[in-house]
Structure formats: C-alpha cells, structure tokens
Write a sequence for this structure.
C-alpha cells in the first residue's frame, strides 16, 4: 500500500457531509424565556427482505446502532424532543420535527427532517437501531454521539460534534470527526479514522493484510495492539512526541518526528499521524 493511497484514505475519513433541510417554521421565541420540554416516541419496523444496507442521517441527538444475529426486520425507535418557551409552542412545533423512514430493494434509510432555523427552539432526536450484523452501515450526525456495536461488515461514519464509539466490530470502518473523540473497544478489523479536534483511543486487533490509518490534527492517539500484530508501522508528529512500549519494531528508524519499522512479517499497515499532540502505542498480550 502506497503513501499516496493512505493519504487518500485519510482525506476520505475526515470528510463530513452536512445536510441542511428547510421548511416553514413557527413564530420565533424569546431566547430569554425558560425552555420547557415535550417528547414523542416513535417505533418503526422494516422487513429485511433482500436488503443489505442501512443509512441514517441525524441533526441533533445521539444514535446507537447494534448488529443483531437473529430476526427478520430492522428496528428503529426512539424519541423526538422539542424544547420551547411554552408547552403549547413545543407541542405545535413537534410536527415540524420528523423521522423519515424509507426503503427500496437494496437498503433502508432513516433521516431527521426539521427546519433549518428553529428560532431558538431546541430540537433533538434520539435514535436506537437494530440491524443485521452483516449489513453495511452509513451513519452521519451533525451534533451528537454515534455508537456502533457488533457489526461484521463495513461502516462509514461522519460526525461534526460528538464522539464516535465503536464496540465489538469485526469488519471495516471509515470514520470522520470534527470535534470529539473516536473510541475503539474490542475492535477487530480495518479502520481509517480522522479527527480534527479530539483524540483517538482504544484497542485494535488488525487482521492479516489489514489497515489501521489514524490521523488527528489537534489532540492525540493512544492505541493498544497485540504484540503478535503483523504490519508495516509508521508514526509521525509535527508538534509532539511518539512513545512505543511493549512492542518489537524490526528495522526501526527513529527521527525527532517519526518512528517506522516492521511488526512481525509486515503483512498489514499501521499509519498514525498527529499534527499537534502525542502518539502512544502499547503492545498487549
């Protein structure tokens, strides 16, 4: 794998798609008024059929997506929340906050729809999703955490403000984040992740010929990998330090700003880059 390809993957990882949806709005409210809250639950079920892809796009609020090993349907449920200066206004405005669910023969799609300018009202949608663990997942959010658990294929994630939490993944993830942290927990696959302001932290077990490309502009990388990992290794910083413990790097080359070498037979590739901050890599058994 060439450095050019790695660079392209990194640029792809940090790309974030912002979708602004516009529709008519109610009268503006006084920002000085105390906000009251109203909630409405939603619950959707879509039969799996021959579909293999799930897409979700949020604006404000967290979402968690869990892979399931059984069942014949995709489950989507949660809460729509509006906070306004009065209960009556919140109730009236709730109809402008929508969860749009659609599907075709290939995929299931979920999207938050709300006015582009809420005039001081606070709108939030909390998502809970269960999909087949073998599906591809595309998830994006403007403000709010995305958590993904127990997938075995591929996930593509973009967040503007909020954390990305990846648990028990056995597959491939491409993640881009502007403000927040990427947390990898029991991750067993290939990962390409980029963060502008925040950190990337966790544990990755790289498959043979797997790829781990992590980049942070302002923040840090703190990575645990098994001592049995087989990969070409490269870590670079612009302003910061690199510390590697518990690992044996063969053909190691170290400079003031970089460390490179080979882990095991060098079958995969680990590339870590931080502009302002530190890189810590720990070998685990």
């Amino acid at each position: 794998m060439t450095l050019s390809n790695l660079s392209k993957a990194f640029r792809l990882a940090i790309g974030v798609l912002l979708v602004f949806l516009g529709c008519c709005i109610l009268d503006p409210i006084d920002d000085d008024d105390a906000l009251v809250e109203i909630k409405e639950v939603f619950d959707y079920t879509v039969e799996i059929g021959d579909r293999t892809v799930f897409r979700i796009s949020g604006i404000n609020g967290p979402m968690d997506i869990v892979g399931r090993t059984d069942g014949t349907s995709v489950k989507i449920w949660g809460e729509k929340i509006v906070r306004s200066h009065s209960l009556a206004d919140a109730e009236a405005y709730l109809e402008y906050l929508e969860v749009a669910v659609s599907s075709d023969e290939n995929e299931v799609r979920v999207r938050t729809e709300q006015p582009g300018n809420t005039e001081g009202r606070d709108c939030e949608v909390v998502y809970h999703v269960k999909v087949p663990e073998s599906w591809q997942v595309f998830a994006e959010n403007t403000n709010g955490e995305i958590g993904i658990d127990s997938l075995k294929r591929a996930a593509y994630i973009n967040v503007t403000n909020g954390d990305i939490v990846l648990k028990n993944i056995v597959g491939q993830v491409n993640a881009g984040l502007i403000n927040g942290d990427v947390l990898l927990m029991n991750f067993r696959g290939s990962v390409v992740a980029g963060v502008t302001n925040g950190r990337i932290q966790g544990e990755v077990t790289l498959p043979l010929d797997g790829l781990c490309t992590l980049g942070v502009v302002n923040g840090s990388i703190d990575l645990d990998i098994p001592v049995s990992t087989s990969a070409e290794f490269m870590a670079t910083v612009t302003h910061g330090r690199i510390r590697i413990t518990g690992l044996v790097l063969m053909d190691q080359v170290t400079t003031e700003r970089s460390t490179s070498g080979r882990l095991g037979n060098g079958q995969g590739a680990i590339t870590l880059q931080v502009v302002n901050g530190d890189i810590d890599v720990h070998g685990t058994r």
Observations:
- The two ends are 27 Å apart (CA to CA).
